[in-house]
Amino acid sequence: MGWAVASSAVTGAPTVYLDHAATTPLRPEARVALAEWSDGVRGNPSGAHHLARAARRALDDARDVLAEALGAGPGDIVFTAGGTEADNLALFGVAESAAGGQARVACSAVEHHAVLEPVHRLGGVVLPVDGSGRVDPATVAGLVPADTAVVSVMLANNEVGTVNPIAGLAAAVREATDGRAVFHTDAVAAFPWLDVARLAAAADLISVSAHKFGGPQGVGVLVVRPGVPLRPRLLGGGQERDRRSGTQNVAGIVAMAAAAAATVAGRPDTVQRVGALRDRFVDRLRVAVGDVDETVPDRGAKVAGNAHLCIGGVVSEELLFLLDHGGVCASAASSCASGAIQLSHVLAAMGVNRERGGGAVRFSLGWCSTEADVDAAVEVVAAAVCRLRAARGRR
Fold it and tell me: Which pTM value belongs to this model?
């Protein structure tokens, strides 16, 4: 099988990992880079001696790799502690640098909470999406106030996988604000699957997180194009050109760069292979149990690793419990409390009804997923669904 890191605590079954959208295993290249840099005495890149200079060179090399992968200049790269910090820095950093911190902000209704919550805190505008979770550039002009300072729309949705037209959205935002607004895109869920350098070229700010593409957890990047106003959130040593103070996580950054290079080099083959595996999984499951809908039916409109399904006759929390018992790792953003289904904010914004959304599960494949993973998962998921339906008196 693919990444079988453990066995089910209950059954001893090998783990089939289909939660790559949450975090994906270290790539071999990242593991080697992490081990090599962590071995022995290492210097602080802000120092002056030879060990410090070696650390600074390692950062510079990583900065070059990531800049090329993201379609940016080396000086545009700001290292962060992950995607959440990158998103927060983008939103708060631009908003606080304009209008005395009272600037208007906006984002789509299906953003990750690392974007959505800052926008709520800043009293911003939330843009609607269509039934696939996509923002229509044609609607932006009437919804984004002319004095908006920053607008954020993710390149690919982390829950349902939908890809947004960033070039068109950035152009619409600039037209609506007479060129004043800064456009940010959260590309955390996109980078494993999409050419971010090309598709996000129109964005002024881009966020990515290493552990989504085979790097270590706790490290990420915010691309800040030249001229973008950004007030730092962390003050102190003045690292990252005064945009993010704090000693850089050199080992994590070096490993992130190695993972990014491997991702970009192998992306076309990975997308083709994993997309076929995703289709195999969904098609076989639909035959096995029936009443399974793809939340975004157009497979070409979402990233290759995403299989977000609404499964009739089950409650997602109960299904996930049985899947975990059977060794299959997946996830769901819906929750059930006192018998009342609470849809995720993404499904609610897309107009998915509560009954259908109550059986929503995200199966997400990654760079190391295999046919054996998919075939084993179909068996476990089908058995669990049949068991839950039988318990509810449904065949």
Answer: 0.94
